[in-house]
Amino acid sequence: MIAPKVSRTNSIQEIKDLEEPSNNLGDNQTTFYNIDTDRDNKTPKPALNFRSKVVEILDSYYMMCFMGVLSIWTLFGDDIRTAACTKSDDDTFYAVATACFSVFGFEFLVCCACKDKYIFSFYFWLDLVSTLSLIPDIGWMWDPIIGVDENDEGGESVYKQANQQSSFATSAAKVLRIVRLIRLIRIVRLYKSASSAIEKHESDSEDEEEVIIPKESQVGKRLSDLTIKRVIIIILCLLFILPFFDTEMYLTNYTSWDYGIQEIEAFKGNTDVATVINEYISYHEDDRRPIIYFIIVVPKIQLFYSWSSSTQISDLRYNEKHFATGDFSVAVFDLREDTKFAAQLNICQTIFICIVLTLGAIYFSKDAEDLVIKPIEKMVERVHFIAKNPISAAHKRHESAYDVILKQKKKFLCFKLKDNEDKAKFEIALLEDTIIKIGVLLALGFGEAGGAIIASNMEKGGDLELVKGNKIVAVFGFCDIRNFTDSTEELQEAVMVFVNEIARIVHSMVDTYHGAANKNIGDAFLLVWKFSEKDFAATNDGGIQANPDSMKAKYIPDLALFSFLKILAKINKDPVILKYREHTKLNLRMPNYEVKMGFGLHIGWAIEGAIGSQFKIDASYLSPHVNMASRFEAATKQYGVPLLFSGSLYDYLSPNVQAYCRHIDTVTVKGSILPIRIYTSDSDFSEFTPSKGRERTKQQSRHKRRILEKKLESETLKSYELYELSKEIQLMKKPFTREFYRVFADGMKGYIEGKWNDAKERFEECLKLRPRDGPSLTLLGVMSECDFEVPNDWKGYRVLTEK
C-alpha cells in the first residue's frame, strides 16, 4: 500500500508538468457519441405548409434587412434626385423607383395571399397607401397622369400650356411632399418587425448552445400595436391637415415676374415696349431664379418678340420652371436652386419625422412597459424557464445573487429612491419574486430527481402526471447520524435543529463538489453525483462504462469521495457541532459524546423518477446500487471506520486519489454472488481544533462550485490536487504512516490468498502501530471464528453478515 502524498505543489508550472492520471475504465466496451442531449431532446418542429413557409421567408432576418434598405431609399431617393442630379439622370432614378414599386407590390400581394387576417386590417391599408405613394416617383407613370409633357421644346406649345403648368407646378410639389411622407409607415413596419427578426436570426445562428430569447407577451403585443397605430394616425393627420391652415394653399404670392409681365402688356402698343422688355429681361437674367425664356405675341398690332438664354426649357423638370403669364406673353424662370433647397429641407424633414415617429412609438408606451408589460413578460419568461428546467432555474437564481447584492448596495449608497416609482413597481416585483421562490421551493422539494416531474407537469398542466422513469448512472452516497435514537430522546424538540445543523454541512459540501441532496430520512441522507449520457453509459450486462473523452467521468468520482472526507472534517471542527460535546443530557446518557456519522459510497445505474400517487409523490432513485451504498454505510459500524466505498468506485478514482484509499476486505452481499472489494479512506481527528465557524451561504457554495468546474474542465486544476492542497485532509491522514499501510497491505494479501497465520501476524503488528484500527480488529475477528484455519471453500472473499 502506498502512503498518501502530503507534499504540496510548489509552483503553477509544477502543477502543469504533473502527468495526467488515467482512469481504469473497465473491460466492457461501449461506443460513446459526443451528442448534445438537450438538443436531441427538443421537440421537432412541425412541417410547415407552403403559406407558412412564404410568411417565414417574408419575416426572416435577411428579408427584413433588404426591405428596410428599399424603404429608406424610397424615403430619400426622389429628394436626392432633385438635390444632386440633373434631368438626364431621371431615367435611372425612375428605373430604381419602378423596381421598388414592383418589390413592394409583390410583397403586398403575397401578404394578402398568405398572411392570416391581413386583408382589410390596419396594416393592409397602410401598406396599400405606402405602395401607391411610390407612383409619383416614377416619372414614366406620373407625368402622363398629371398631363405634363416634358418633351416640349418651347415656342407655341409652351405658350399654350403656360397657364396650366404654372398653376400646377406649385400645388403638385406640395402634394408630393405630403404623399412621400406617407411612406414613413414602412419604417413603422420595419420598427415593429425588426426585433423579432433579429432575435430569430441570433437564435438560429447558435449551433451548440441553446439561447433563450424572451418572447413578447400578448399584452405587450397588443399595447405596442395600439400605440403604434395611434402614433401613425396622429402624425398622418398632422401631415395632411396642417397644410390647409397655410395661406399658400389658398393664395398665390404676387411677384416681380407677374408684375413685370403686366407692365410689358400695358406698353404693348407703345414704341417703348422693346425698352421695357429689355429692362425686364436684364433685371431677371442674373437673378437667383433667372429668366430663361420670354415671348410676346400680339397679332393685332403685329407684335412678336422672342428671347431665350443658353438654358433650354427641355433641360428642366416641370417643377424646376415657373411660368409668368399674361394675355399675350409668357416668361419662363429657372427654379433649380429653389427645388434643390426644398429637396434638402425635405430630407431633413423626413429624418425629423422618422425620429418623432420612433420616439413617439417608444415613449408613448414606455411607462406602461416599464411598470407592467416588461415585469409581466419577465414573469412569464421565468415561469417557462422553471417549467423547462426547474433545477437550473433554482441554481441560476443563486448564481446571480452576488451581482444583485452589489447592485442593491450601490443603489442605496449612490441614489435616493423615488418613492412613487418604487411603490408602483413593488407589487409586480413582489409577485415576480414569489414566482421565483415557488420554483426554488419546487426544486428544493423534489431535488435533482424531480426535475423531469416538475417540467412535465408545468408544461402540460392539468392533473399530476407521473412520468416514466429514466435510467441514469451516478455515484450514490448514503450517510447516517450515529446514536440518533438516544439523541432524539434527550434533545426532544431541539433534535430538528440538531439534524438541520448537520444537514447544512452535508448538503453544502456535496453541492459545492458537484453533487445533489436527494433524500432526508430522519437521521440519514441520500446524496447523488449524477452523470449525463455522454459521460457514462449502462452496459447490456448490467454494468457501466465511462466515456474516455469525458472530463466529468474522470473528476466526479474524486469529488464524491473528497466531499465525504470534507464533511467528516467539518463535523469534527465546526463549533456549532462541537457544542454538542458539552451537552449535559447527551453526556449523561452517552459519556464523552461526540457527533459521529457513517458514510457509504458506490457507483452504478439507477432508475430516476417519481414514486407515489396523486396524493403524495417523492422523486428518488430505485436500484440495487443505491441499496449497496446503504449497506456500505451500515457496515462502517462493523469495520470501525466512518467511511466505506466499493471497488467499483475505487477503479474510477484517479491513481493519485487511490493512494488515499485502503483495501480492507472483499465480500459478497445479500442479493449478489459477485465479490465486492471494500475500501476506506482513513481519517483521524485527534489533532483537529475548532474552526472560526464561518458559515458559507448557498450563494457562496454555488459560486465556488462554478469556479471549481471551470478549473477542472479546463484542466488548470486536477481533481487529485484538491486532496494534496487540503490542509484538513492532510491533517486527518497525518497519523497513518507508510509503515502502517505496508504492514496492513501484507496482511490483506495473506488474508485473500488464504495464508491466515501470516495475515494474523501482520494485523496484530498493525494494532501495535494503531491499537484501535477497526479493519484489523474486524478481520482478526473473522479469522478467529475459524480458529485462523482457512475454510475449504475459501475463494478470497466472505459473505458480509449484518450485525
Automatic annotation (TrEMBL):
The record's Gene Ontology biological-process terms are:
cyclic nucleotide biosynthetic process; intracellular signal transduction
Which residue range or ranges hold the Guanylate cyclase domain?
Answer: 475-633
**PROSITE patterns registered for this protein in UniProt:** GUANYLATE_CYCLASE_2
Q: How does it sit in the membrane?
A: Multi-pass membrane protein
InterPro entries in UniProt: A/G_cyclase, Ion_trans_dom, Nucleotide_cyclase, Volt_channel_dom_sf
The GO molecular function terms of this record are: monoatomic ion channel activity
- Say if the entry is tagged with keyword Membrane: yes
- Keywords for this protein: Membrane, Transmembrane, Transmembrane helix
What SUPFAM superfamilies does the record point to? Nucleotide cyclase
Name this polypeptide is given: Guanylate cyclase domain-containing protein
